[in-house]
């Protein structure tokens, strides 16, 4: 995975093993012996977590941390409503999806109500990789083309199809011949032209796919551009690119694993901020607060081009226990108005973080939507040269101060601040103080 922007940045290498806690070192050695070399751990000294609640985590030594990274436990770690729903259903029945069960149908009806009316069908899997894999297959079947366009640091999964459309996995994982990667629109470095430039590059990618006999099946895009460095951009920024894809005969697949379910604050789905009007939307484990459940929702006519000819069976995709978790998550999101919470608390967090730019020259840009914020560090504010080394040092200093997060973007210099939605106003001050202290240490 040479050069992987999401696997290698902030990863344990063993170079700092000397002086590491003996119990942690032994567990690392045992893990490496039986689990192989493909896995990556965070931090120079890996964190051994044993308990979580809300936006807090505790390690084996009893040290408490604020989790600023984990959107998988979207409501918060060990949320009581999810625990209750899963426990109750597990005590009754868990089986595959070739039997009738009310929970999956009830949930699907409620889920589809959150989408535009044209999105009227749903299918279920266990992981986001499976959802994106199926989405690519559906798009190719519907359009008759093969080509997929993604952003240049995108991550969409680990299957054969999705890893070939995930440039963030690095040079050790080459793109598939029918995939083209386009630099994401970055308004910090490009200004107001970012969206138009992105659309022009998408048009050029579609033309290249056509020239090579692939045609264009879809633009597969995460609307918060998370792996590209958290690039929310202005509303509507991605609309022109979507138009270019459709002009080339393709469709839009919105990968909502990270920006979906109210996280971006002002809309329930991230694609709604950007006039994408997708034909297919994919969902991942945040829909079940970390339970193994994912989904694909689509326009009926698009999905029919696949499902009328090809049956699809995912043994435990949409099983009753996972759907009980998903149902609890959706209910809590709506009843507790967590989208509005994300907008309000995220706005306050963004404002507080932005004040750090007045005190630290390392801070180049602070941007975000709801509880999804990118905090970019630069060596020089004029040249905007990325401060990768400093960002990794800041991550380590934050860990020492009880705040967990990681980095994103092509240069590994953007702190990805994406806490569970249980993050509260009272959590803002300790996070900002820890970041303030960490920046001061690194700068001096």
UniProtKB/TrEMBL annotation:
Q: Which UniProt keywords apply?
A: Aminotransferase, Pyridoxal phosphate, Transferase
Q: Name one Pfam family in it.
A: Aminotran_3
Gene3D superfamilies in UniProt: Aspartate Aminotransferase, domain 1, Type I PLP-dependent aspartate aminotransferase-like (Major domain)
Which one of the record's GO molecular function terms can you name?
transaminase activity
CDD domains named in the record: OAT_like (cd00610)
Origin, by domain of life? Bacteria
Entry-linked InterPro entries: Aminotrans_3, PyrdxlP-dep_Trfase, PyrdxlP-dep_Trfase_major, PyrdxlP-dep_Trfase_small
Q: Family assignment?
A: Belongs to the class-III pyridoxal-phosphate-dependent aminotransferase family.
* Record-given protein name: Aspartate aminotransferase family protein
